[in-house]
UniProtKB/TrEMBL annotation:
Acyltransferase found in the keyword field: no
Native source species: Streptomyces mauvecolor
Matching Pfam families: TetR_C_43 (PF21597), TetR_N (PF00440)
The name this protein goes by in its record: TetR/AcrR family transcriptional regulator
HTH tetR-type domain mapped to chain residues: 30-89
PANTHER family in UniProt: HTH-TYPE TRANSCRIPTIONAL REGULATOR BETI (PTHR30055:SF234), HTH-TYPE TRANSCRIPTIONAL REGULATOR RUTR (PTHR30055)
Feature: DNA-binding region: 52-71
Length: 235
């Protein structure tokens, strides 16, 4: 038998797990959350993910305290706004991996990603920079790297991709192009396909010639993304 002083604690430990789940949001709290997510989506698309959080609260018509209660960090709000978009990118990557034509799958996948980035500055910021505290974003970056790496290996083996490039070469080039996609789209919709085509042609086996400098490592590429996102590099 458990000692008397531990009886209450043991009783608590035997409580069904479902009793420990957080209570559902009240109707007004749920409404405020929906208003904040909608306002954030609009402002992220217009101004990028670094828009002041106070401005998001103002557009949603709620107080700053309400915003920080629902979303303690920017990453929490980013996660709520972009989870579906990022899941769609991941699904597109899965489809590309199943294609037999690796080069064709690579170009189709990147065209789809770039079309999404061109439509939404917030998504463009997410995919071409870095932000802390967004697990779905972390997962899509890993998944995207795996998708590109696999397609590039297969395309190189098929003689269609130059053999002296690595995944970080493509990611860096795409980051540079991706940052400008919303502006290009706003001037002439769809015209971003031209620079993307030129970029991809540079990765074709027929374009191979000696390259100056070595490729950036994965760690160096991550530091570039952090710099683009306004985050200081880690010491």
């Amino acid at each position: 038998m458990a000692p008397p002083e531990n009886h209450e604690q043991n009783q608590q430990n035997r409580q069904p797990s479902h009793q420990k789940k957080p209570a559902p949001l009240r109707r007004d709290a749920l409404r405020n959350r929906e208003l904040l997510v909608a306002a954030a989506r609009e402002l992220f698309a217009e101004q990028g993910i670094n828009v002041p959080l106070d401005e998001i609260a103002k557009r949603a018509g709620v107080g700053n305290a309400t915003l920080y209660r629902r979303f303690p960090a920017r990453g929490d709000l980013v996660e709520a706004v972009f989870r579906d978009d990022l899941a769609a990118v991941m699904a597109s990557g899965e489809k590309a991996r199943r294609e037999d034509d690796a080069w064709g799958a690579l170009t189709t996948y990147l065209e789809g990603v770039c079309a999404l980035l061109a439509r939404d500055r917030g998504v463009s910021d997410l995919m071409t920079t870095g932000i802390e505290g967004a697990p779905t974003l972390d997962a899509i970056h890993v998944h995207n790297h795996e998708t590109l790496s696999g397609l590039m290996r297969r395309a190189a083996a098929a003689g269609e991709l130059r053999t002296d490039v690595v995944t970080e070469d493509l990611l860096f080039a795409l980051s540079a192009l991706g940052a400008s996609l919303p502006a290009i789209e706003s001037i002439r919709p769809g015209s971003w396909r031209r620079p993307l085509s030129l970029l991809l042609d540079g990765f074709r086996a027929t374009a191979q010639r000696p390259l100056p400098e070595r490729a950036l490592t994965a760690e160096e590429t991550d530091l570039v993304h952090r710099e683009l996102g306004g985050e200081p590099p880690e010491a």
